[in-house]
Amino acid sequence: MAWSKKGCVGVRMVRSPQAALRWGGMLSLALVFCVLTNGCALLNNLTHETRPTSTPAAGDGLLPGQERWKDGVSSFLFGTNDTQEWSEDNIETNPAVQQALKAAHFTLLRTFFFAHSLADGHATTDAELEQRIATVEKSGMVCLGVLFDITNVPFIEHVVRLLGPRCNLYEFGNEPDLGDGAGHDQYSLQTYLKQWNTVIPQLRSINPQAKFIGPATYTPQGNFCHYRDDGSNSCYLQDFLMGVKASGVLPDAVSFHDYPCYQETEASCLAKASSYAEATAQVKDWVNSILGKNLPVGITEWNYDPGVPPPNYGDDFMTRFSTDALHAMIQAKLDFAAQFDALSYSGYGAQDLFDLEHQDQPKPQYYAIKAVIDAYYP
Length: 378
Hints:
With 378 residues, the protein is of the alpha/beta class. The protein has helices at residues 40-47, 95-103, 126-138, 153-163, 189-206, 236-247, 266-271, 275-291, 315-331, 364-376, and strands at residues 9-14, 27-33, 79-82, 108-113, 142-147, 169-172, 211-217, 226-227, 233-234, 253-258, 297-302, 336-339, 354-355, 361-362. The protein contains 10 helices and 14 strands.
């Protein structure tokens, strides 16, 4: 659903276990609400807690593995996602898909490190962690690991320690302001900040080269919006920035998700492809105004619609929307982005770059992204 500067946002709910992920479950909007509370007490509580110190985030330089391509375009705009696998045929088991991504010069693979499988609940093994990182490497991409279970500190520390220099980019949690409706709850801002301020310094000591990113909100502004007596308002992402400014445990980059359409007409949805530029500019402005400095900003999940499944507007639409969306990101000088997703049967396969029903052939969105890569690849 399109985001609103006024703070009204949509809650997406999971429809079935099989459909459980759009990020990790194909989510659909179920209700719209505005949370009208006074956030002053919240922020006062956050800023007066005792917090550990941490090495400040790096300046405005490139992230590990990032390059500048033609016209200064960030190489990391051309990423995709490897989420929970809902089919035995997926990016991790299909060498042809990995080679197709590598041949097209996709650059960033956002891969989820779950403590337990969302499909059947079994504990993730080291072999499964190795398979995920090997998929990144075989696809010729850079790892952006999602530390999904933010309260399972032993598992998170194990992942960072096990992978070492093979993964130097991590996102802390996934849509903590939303929850997936399948047993994984929302994390209040207080809980998320408490974990961030406690765990991130520990992870930085394990891998000093790694960069840590948050808060991965489900829209550019995030949930839990509130209004103040002076007429101002803020939501999860802004309040996260205010919280880390107070604690001193700054992120190395800031991330959010953006699916601008929801069950709209094809024309209406296509017109929103350019909204990625506005969303990027707004988040960059929040980062600069709140933190007093610029940090890399990324959209770590993007596609046209988060429905279950999303509408099928046809091949021409997917080509035009994907091309326009990437050009909007380039115009706004976005630092990194990851289409959702590569091949995991997300949205019953509708959001995959490869077609499970036709021998995993690349779909129009793959070719659209490849064409933009070709235009800027050095």
